Amino acid sequence: MKSATTWLGKTIEFELSGCKLPIQGEVIDAGEDIIVVYGNQRYIYVPLHHIQTMHFTKSEETSTSPDVPAPDPEMDHDNISYRKVLMNARGRFSEISIGGRTLHGYITSIMNDYFIFYSPLHHSVYVSIHHLKYIIPSPSNSRPYAMEHQHFPIQPSSISLSRTLDQQLQKMAGELVILNLGYKPEQTGLLKSINDKLLEVIDAEGRARFMHTSHVQTLHLP
User: Fold this and answer.
1) What b/e readout covers 134-147, taking b as 16+ CB neighbours within 10 angstroms?
2) In terms of Cα–Cα distance, which of 60, 62, 77 is closest to 25?
3) Other C-beta atoms lying within 10 Å of the C-beta of residue 167
4) Where residue 136 falls among pLDDT bands split at 50, 70, 90?
5) Cβ neighbours of residue 48 closer than 8 Å, sequence gap 6 or more
């Protein structure tokens, strides 16, 4: 794969691992580990390691002077990087994608390899930085579901935060948890223990299920 900076000003379409639909738009910025695409009047920030395939669109092949949109004025694009994008998006209503599913809410805290995303529907969600497919920050005056600000108080988790997701999982042993947004029923239950990066989760019928921590995309409490 060529350096993403060679795509600047071009219209591309690409597929992301775990996402059903491709993303299309104009490349307006790129760093060593992130690419910024403008499509459907939205700025989409995509970690490069999730791009599976990419090609230039027919409109790009026939265009001689593409009109490239300006970068998002509310984001800092100097020496752009994945972590810097997360820092700039903190406290700003955003859409994120994890494993083909989307959440809407706010980044409230960023740790070494995960961040806390507060969603009106799921409350505090612990999201692995390695599994985030994309993030789309909205204008700073946007509100989720058109709710008034006074009807959407952000309630930080009462659980103290550890530096890494593995350490956070250790801290939450003994709690009822929902892993990966409950996509699979067996990933919801009592988090019994974590040993050598293997989680033991007891399901509703009392059966033990095991998962390697590298496959934990998200974690939240019911």
Assistant:
1) bbbbbeeeeebeee
2) 60
3) 16
4) very high
5) 1, 4, 32, 33, 34, 35
Report the alpha-carbon distance of residue 133 to residue 184 in Å, rounded. Answer: 19
Pick the more confident residue, 166 or 150. 166
* Cα separation, 45 vs 74, whole angstroms: 13
Residue 159 and residue 172 in contact, taking contact as beta carbons nearer than 8 Å:
yes
Q: Give the Cβ contact number of residue 110 at 10 Å.
A: 17
DSSP string, 32-45: SSEEEEEETTEEEE
Give SS3 for 199: strand
pLDDT interval class at 65 (50, 70, 90): very low
| Token couple for 159 | 């659980």
Where do the DSSP E strands lie in the chain? 11-16, 23-30, 34-39, 42-47, 51-56, 94-98, 101-110, 114-119, 123-128, 132-137, 176-179, 188-195, 198-202, 208-212, 218-220
More confident residue, 68 or 217: 217
For 61, other C-beta atoms within 10 Å of its C-beta total 10
Query: Can you tell me the distance from the alpha carbon of 131 to that of 60, in angstroms, rounded to the nearest whole number?
Result: 30
